[in-house]
Amino acid sequence: MGYRVSIMTMETKNEIFERYKKEYFKARIQKSGGRKKCGEILDIVCDVSMMTRKAAIRKFKRLQFKEPCEEEKRGRAVYYTADVTAALKQVWDSSNGLCGELLHPVISDYVDIFKRAKTWNHSDEATGKLLKMSERTVKRRVHEFEKAKRRGQGFSSTSPSNVKTIIPVFMGPWKDLDPGHEQIDTVVHCGSTLKGDMVYTLNSTDVATYWNLLGAQWNKGEQATIENRKKLRARLPFQHLHDHSDTGSEFINWDTVEWNEDTGVKLTRSRPNKKNDNCFVEERNGHIVRKYVGYIRLDCVEAVEALNNLFEVLNLYTNHFIPSRRTIENVRVGAAYKRTFEKAATPYKRVLAHPKISDSVKEKLRAEHATLNPEVLLKEIGRLRAVLYDVQRKHGSQIA
After folding, report:
1. Is the bond leading into 173 cis (omega within 30 degrees of zero)?
2. pLDDT tens by residue, 102-148
3. Contact by Cβ (8 Å): 258, 356
4. DSSP structural state of residue 84
5. CB 335 within 8 A of CB 353
6. Does the pTM exceed 0.85?
7. Distance (Å, rounded) from C-alpha 330 to C-alpha 353?
8. What is the pLDDT at residue 288?
């Protein structure tokens, strides 16, 4: 006699019990022959489902007392139900897919804004549960949401200049610097080749507050970069004290040295091939510029204006609603490093909490913040990005 192999799913087992439950319940109340009939049914069910006799009896008993609309589910009842997950998903979508650690501290801010804009349609119970959700639970829930596909790698257009010998190297410390100490860098929108003319993004990140400003320019000539820096400096909400760049020729040149001397802004540079000397702006290149613009080639002059229109909205969105975490401690344990982070906060919250920034600046930012909605800004970013791509398709080359 051969051995029978049976692979049963939970759905198949449920179907077997549903098939025989009426006969089993009827046999249970019969005075004559009922006991024998129940035994026959249990033999069939146990043989097919590979369950023990006692387990099958308990299964029938659960079915007998189950409510008509009740789904059988073992274990502890789910506290964060689907309506709470839907509420979290709205917040996560409006943050453009933040990780759980960064999303958790801004959930209440997003909910308040959505309520103010009357776009929050979730129940009070779901909202209360969402606001009480721990960071670990947020991380688990966010992990289940759809992740954006990893994008390809770009190119570096940085090349050193001989003028760097007169510009001092600065390696830190960056920890206790006042607002106004900016790390600057350019990002090239070249697609798959660095040949020809193209659009560049000037990225400026404040070390103390993580306040980020972006501006597009045509190529990375000395004068074009200086004009772009002037525009970004005018939009900085606090005093501009210090510029720190890599060794790219757009920053390390005589025109830049003279401009910084005339404006009283200190100029330093990082060591060649040492990205950590410029780490604050380098991470923003990927987290903001590449994430929201992508690696598309922009090689038409018309794309500069379209990209600047996108950056005008993107700067509001990232500074007011996208938090970041600063590393407090980095300890080597064996072959690995154990990092300790501070609580995540948006650049807007960092500015409000900084004692060196004037109350007038803070009041102006509070008034601006009260008019913003992350959901609306993200939709506008998507629309302006589509306009940018249309401009490139219409006026640019066909090179990817």
Report:
1. yes
2. 999 999 999 999 999 999 999 999 999 999 999 999 998 888 875 54
3. no
4. H
5. no
6. no
7. 24
8. 92
